[in-house]
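Much of the work behind modern protein science is quiet bookkeeping, done one molecule at a time. The protein below has been through that process, and both of its lines are reproduced in full.


***
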Amino acid sequence: MTCRDPSPTQLMEDNHINMQSHSCDPDRPAHPGIFPTREAGKSNHQLAGSSVDFLVSVVLPAGGTGERTGLQTPKQFCSFLGRPLISYTIQAFERVSWIQSIVVVVAKENMDLMTDIVQRFQHKKVRAVPGGSTRHRSICNGVRALGDGEEERPKVVIIHDAVRPFVDEDLLYKIAMAAEEQGAAGAIRPLVSTVIATTSEGYLDHSLERAKYRASEMPQGFTYDVICQAYQKCSESDFEFGTECLHLALQYCGTNAKLIQGPPTLWKVTYKRDLAAAESIIKETLSRSACVITGGSEQAVTLADALQKAVGALDMKLDVIPDLMGENAGYLLKEWNFIQVSVNRSCLSEVEAVLTDLQAANRAVLHPLVVIWTSGRRTDSDSSKVHLSGSDELSVSGRGVEPATIMDLASAAKFRNILLYGIQLRQTKDAERWERSVLRLAEITSALIRERSPALVGQLLQA
């Protein structure tokens, strides 16, 4: 394996995701690779005028067997919300415009599976290579692959665990810049528990002063030459039993890594319960907002405004728009939840139009989209009473809509990873009952969006 310095490349136009204001909470991930690159925004380092003007590639070791999860499937290939864990991690890197390529290192028996994942979820910067018998051998294979291809060798190589999906661009930027300057860099976190040493008989020998030590985390970054040389010089013992890449850079290249404090979200999926936690975090991230489509009807707008206020109390932001045309078409590229409010006899055709627009946008390949069809009509008979009007039986084009029709529409949408639910408001002439119905509508809407349950698609719920 030979090494040479790459020539710098110009920074690509930034397409970093546009963070919502509450995503700045340090205890929650900004976005776990959720939003596509076409949702343009500005990251903190770009607002400061900085740029990455050198080539950066990523190596994701993914050859583990997942013994600690107690599952037959290695944890990196375990799925939730219709996608394997490793796909979320890949997307977190793919959305960073200045990352040139991603090499995923997998066990030979999983090469076909990994290739299928890359194709099915339309990952563009990725190629899979077979791993080795140990972690270091697998990483070495990934580094070697970066030098064997037709692409120009990167100046900096970022190494990250495939089972750590919650990594943001700001940390990647800090790691890349520090690695380019220092030769090596790595994320660290404070120790949560005190580390102790035991005797061979199982008694306490001594404890370490926790304030002086840190937990080594991922990602880690190296110049290509440093990590390449470290693996050329390291011993068989290092390959077999070593786990720390920063140590190899120090021992064999004399490169003292720059250590960078990482956020709390760098945790690694290790146990079965961690998969449930990762799913919960991604669901929470996907459910922070929704788009309400009214069709321009005054009655639909009235209902949408009431729903907007009620859902806001449940920590969800709603934008109310008349349609998905013109400047509103941008919601197709940035929103994951849509609520069609229908008050006329063509309600199914309205939601069918939304489904058609979403299918054309081709975004459901990454995450399940939620569409909620809310049917009901509110009229104000006087200043003190409001009520829903219309028959108890849903209708479209003058004909009653059978539940099977709604179920068929939802079943077809489900194949495209779009989850369609229905909610009908019961008619009432009583103001208090109306308010309770709207509150119930908000609660059902929030629950459907947060849970994203495929088992409930096609159901017509009552509010």
